[in-house]
Amino acid sequence: MTVKQLMASMTLALGATLLAQPGYTASNEDKKLSFNAKEVASGIYMLQGVGGFTGGNIGLSIGEDGVVMIDDSMPPMLDIMKTAIKSVTDKPVDFLINTHVHGDHIGNNAAMANDGAHIVAHENLRHHLLTKGISSGGKTKDAPKAMLPVITFSHSMSFHLNGEDAELIHLPKAHTDGDAAIHFKQANVIHTGDVFFNGMFPYIDINSGGSVDGYISAQETLIKLANDKTKIIPGHGPLASKSDLEKAVAMLKEAKSRIAKAIDKGLSEDDVVNNNPLSDYHEAWNWGFITTEKMTRQVYKSLKQ
């Protein structure tokens, strides 16, 4: 799936949180959805949605020590996700890493935990679920106990499984306040979570502790870990390379610079939007959930904090 095709399929779906709610019932259209399992390195797979929006990209490390999974989509996608997993392994998932708190990435936590997976995440993600709960049917309720991470970390932690030294890295105040990226050192693979939207404007969740400066810093941290042969699994979008990530951070730095200059001139948020400082990025980076206007507004709000 190309970036443009993915953007089209995500346009309506990502902004509509209905898909992430436990009470959602799959329609006939949803039954056409599936996950494609692509082996990006020996024993490491990327699961990407086909036919529409299925949530964030999923990672799998499979080997003699067991199965480590990264993110788990949304409740309506549970069956097709399990089908994709079974296409590459008959083993159960031992560890489930959450890259951040959004429902299109951790919506099946409880189901996977009930199947025996041990959930791993940054401590801020568990705190978020315990204090803010989850959204369901337009209301907030307590997160089910089975949904909560049972293993948390503050700065970094390592997995030494399946012939890999895999490091989990906390990326502070980036997409949220609880972002984690996973670096498979031997395989030269990085799963970024949503600190990287490949080929489209990113979502910076300011209300959940994200910031434009933290997002830039997170991407720069990951660039330092990569080389020209690194395979990068983004939170959304096709499999990427170091150069794709460099393009994304260059765009974000320029967007920040332009909007910061407008703020220094005393322009209001609406004034900046009306001046459309990101117009030259519109054709390549705009999409339905993070339009050029929304991108401008979220950067403005972050810089004004």
Structure commentary:
The chain is of the alpha/beta class and 305 residues long. The protein has helices at residues 3-13, 78-86, 103-106, 109-114, 123-132, 212-225, 242-264, 269-275, 282-285, 292-304, and strands at residues 34-41, 44-50, 58-63, 66-70, 95-97, 118-122, 134-136, 139-141, 151-153, 156-161, 164-171, 179-184, 189-197, 231-236. The protein has 10 helices and 14 strands. It starts with a helix and ends with a helix.
**Multimerization state:** single chain
Helical residue percent band:
25-40%
Structural class: alpha/beta
From the alpha carbons, calculate the radius of gyration and give it in angstroms.
Answer: 18 Å
The percent range for strand residues is 25-35%
Low-confidence stretches: 1-30
How many helices? The count is: 10
Arithmetic mean of pLDDT: 91
Number-wise, the strands total 14
Alpha-carbon distance between the termini?
37 Å
Order of helices and strands: HEEEEHEHHEHEEEEEEEHEHHHH
Overall body shape: globular
Strand order of the largest sheet: 1-2-3-4-5-6-9
Could you give a short account of the major beta sheet?
Answer: 7 strands, mixed
In short:
With 305 residues, the chain is an alpha/beta fold.
Layout: helices, strands, pairs:
Layout: H1 3-13, E1 34-41, E2 44-50, E3 58-63, E4 66-70, H2 78-86, E5 95-97, H3 103-106, H4 109-114, E6 118-122, H5 123-132, E7 134-136, E8 139-141, E9 151-153, E10 156-161, E11 164-171, E12 179-184, E13 189-197, H6 212-225, E14 231-236, H7 242-264, H8 269-275, H9 282-285, H10 292-304
Parallel strand pairs: 4-5, 5-6, 6-9, 13-14
Antiparallel strand pairs: 1-2, 2-3, 3-4, 7-8, 10-11, 11-12, 12-13
